[in-house]
Specification:
Blueprint (H helix, E strand, L loop, with lengths): L14 E5 L6 H9 L10 E2 L2 E2 L5 H6 L2 E4 L3 H5 L6 H6 L9 E2 L2 E2 L1 H14 L16 H13 L5 E5 L7 H16 L3 E5 L3 H7 L2 E6 L2 E7 L7 H8 L13
Parallel strand pairs: 1-8, 1-9, 4-7, 7-8
Antiparallel strand pairs: 2-3, 5-6, 9-10
């Protein structure tokens, strides 16, 4: 069992940081919430609606945006143009599709707007995606997700492999999404990133929750978080759901 007795909530207008050493259930947690894996037990709710067992496409449609851990494997199709990756999760919706017909002129219009808004460095929206740098690949995913104003964002290792400038840009956009009301779940092995961005910090160890630190109620103690990540300290988790 990769996840054991997980129960917590992510609130509108907050960043919940998921801290833990790699391989302690973070990837599985991301996958089950996004519909990539089906849990054996338990349920997930989005604003009171049960989304357990829904397909990734259905979950996206219900308002969950995903910035996956592996941007090149799970976040993008590298051999298609940038404009297609920018709308690939909702190309079959109005205004991009009318019945069985795809409106490429509208897709191009929106893609150009997103490229400008998110400062994606390309020569054309028809550039093949694999030619982009890591930072620009992540911006494509970020633009695709945030342009839909999702109710919840799952950002897994969002700055892994990025330079300082791209990292700061990603942090800025996640904080902005939070202020606009999205519930953000940030999964990161970078403890400094977790501490810098999170309103609350949930610590995982061997698929379970070792505790949740609410930064409004207490100061962040790195030594305490370290002990929790190592499985040496467990605190009572109050409330939460699903």
């Amino acid at each position: 069992m990769a996840l054991k007795g997980i129960s917590f909530d992510v609130r509108k207008g907050e960043i919940l940081g998921i801290a833990g050493v790699s391989g302690n259930g973070q990837k599985e947690l991301e996958d089950v919430i996004c519909g990539v894996r089906i849990p054996r037990n338990g349920k997930f709710f989005l604003e009171g609606k049960d989304i357990t067992g829904k397909s990734p496409k259905e979950i996206i449609k219900m308002g969950v945006g995903r910035i996956p851990e592996d941007r090149m494997e799970d976040g993008l199709i590298l051999d298609i143009p940038v404009l297609e990756n920018l709308v690939i999760e909702y190309y079959d919706k109005v205004p991009y599709s009318k019945g069985a017909l795809i409106d490429y002129s509208k897709i191009e219009e929106v893609a150009k707007k997103l490229v400008k808004e998110y400062n994606i460095k390309i020569s054309s929206v028809y550039d093949i995606t694999r030619t982009l740098s890591g930072g620009n690949l992540q911006k494509v995913i970020l633009a695709r997700v945030l342009s839909q104003q999702p109710k919840m964002i799952i950002a897994s290792q969002p700055t892994r492999g990025l330079d300082i400038g791209a990292t700061e840009y990603m942090h800025e956009k996640l904080l902005h999404a939070k202020t606009k009301g999205s519930a953000v779940m940030l999964i990161s092995e970078d403890l400094n990133e977790i501490i810098h961005l999170s309103d609350r910090i949930l610590v995982m160890y061997e698929g379970g929750i070792m505790g949740i630190i609410d930064r409004e109620c207490e100061q962040v103690d790195i030594e305490t978080i370290g002990l929790m990540m190592a499985g040496s300290l467990k605190r009572e988790v109050k409330g939460g759901s699903n």
